[in-house]
Amino acid sequence: MSTTAPAPQQADSEVRSGLEGVVAFATEIAEPDKEGGALRYRGVDIEDLVGRVPYEKVWGLLVDGTFEPGLPPAEPHALNWRSGDPRVDVQAALAQLAPEWGFQQLLDISDEQARQDLARASVMALSFVAQSARGTGRPPVPQREVDKATSIPERFLIRWRGEADPRHVKAIDAYWISAAEHGMNASTFTARVIASTGADVAAALSGAVGALSGPLHGGAPSRVLTMLDEVAASGDAEAYVKQVLDSGQRLMGFGHRVYRAEDPRARVLRRTAKEISAPRVEVAEALETAALAELKARRPDRVLATNVEFWSAVVLDFADVPPELFTPLFASARVAGWSAHILEQKREGRLIRPTAKYVGPGPRSVDEV
Q1: Which of 273, 301, 42 is closest to 167 using CA atoms?
Q2: Is 276 exposed, middle or buried (0-12, 13-18, 19+ CB in 10 A)?
Q3: Where are the alpha helices (DSSP H) in the chain?
Q4: Can you say whether residue 11 is alpha, beta or left, with left for phi > 0 and alpha for psi between -120 and 50 degrees?
Q5: Are the CB atoms for 204 and 289 separated by under 8 Å?
Q6: What is the set of active-site residues?
Q7: Which phi and psi (to 5°) does residue 38 adopt?
Q8: Which of 180-194, 250-264, 271-285 comes out lowest in average pLDDT?
Q9: What 3-state DSSP class applies to 38?
Q10: CA-CA distance, 209 to 10, in Å (whole number)?
Q11: What is the 3-state secondary structure (H, E, C) of 165-212?
């Protein structure tokens, strides 16, 4: 019996690890301007949207290309499955909508029906997050109280807490608009792959939520709060930044795989944090200034600017959103982009089936294993 296995074949330059730089789709939905540090939804800059157009109309812009009719209020529907983890709850509840509401597969319905199903499921995702966050020890908020709200973010907060501070509504609205869409990230790619199989819209949305279960996509803002707490305790942002970098740790909230300039979402949320007088603004600005200066000094060849997670943490913390709800709040925002991509993929009508290049052992016998 041979003890020497054949040498593995080597991958060549055709293989892009993580699909880095591979263009998989032509899309009309969003345009991250890598060089200019801008993000446009169907041509409209998010800096012009936040504070002027509510989230439910931005959902319409992404899905329909127009603000009207936008995202309607959620239908009364109790969250029946509770795991103790709001992300798991919303993923499971979304998947169950197809049999409960009779959603048909994308392959068998019109674009108009798909759009209607996406709207119903999207806004239910927000409702499910709010109901899960409220917990099991408190009674549901009466529907008549929820119906008094004038916007989707306000409805969300009332369904969750029974009341809605206008400043918290503004914070959530700004965050949701900023995080509504951002091109071909892991969760959006997942949604499109599922949609390409002809599955129902609830399956595609539920799968996208599942892609947020790992810490590398959607959960980073909670880690920023830890840094802000430590800087506030020490009172010396510059020393803190040096200590973190000297120890080989990573500064959360800086650098982005897409932008070669400041993340435009960070710019919008920084502005929002100041407008709502978020109490962490001062320490956040001190940390941001120290971090940018030190990163530039250490890595002058790279642009490591502030990204969306940094100021998202400040805005969500101001709205009294606990860290364990940061990922579910991100999912609530991103249903807009997912819906737009699901509908775009339906219209493309082609199964997504990339190729893998085999780089394992060459032909060998059973005795050689």
Answers
A1: 273
A2: buried
A3: 46-49, 55-64, 86-101, 111-134, 143-146, 152-161, 166-178, 186-196, 201-210, 221-234, 237-246, 264-275, 281-298, 308-318, 326-348
A4: beta
A5: no
A6: 256, 309
A7: -125, 155
A8: 250-264
A9: strand
A10: 35
A11: CHHHHHHHHHHHHHCCCCCCCHHHHHHHHHHHCCCCHHHHHHHHHHCC
Q: What is the pLDDT of residue 259?
A: 67
Mean pLDDT for 277-289 is 97
**Alpha-carbon torsion (301, 306, 309, 313), positive or negative:** positive
**More confident position, 183 or 333:** 333
* Angle of CA points 241, 308, 288, to nearest 5°: 25
Residues 268, 145: Cα–Cα separation, whole Å: 31
Rounded to whole angstroms, the Cα distance separating 220 from 292 reads 18
Torsion of CA 107, 110, 114, 115, to 10 degrees: 150
Cβ 201 vs Cβ 118: under 8 Å: yes
pLDDT score of 1:
41
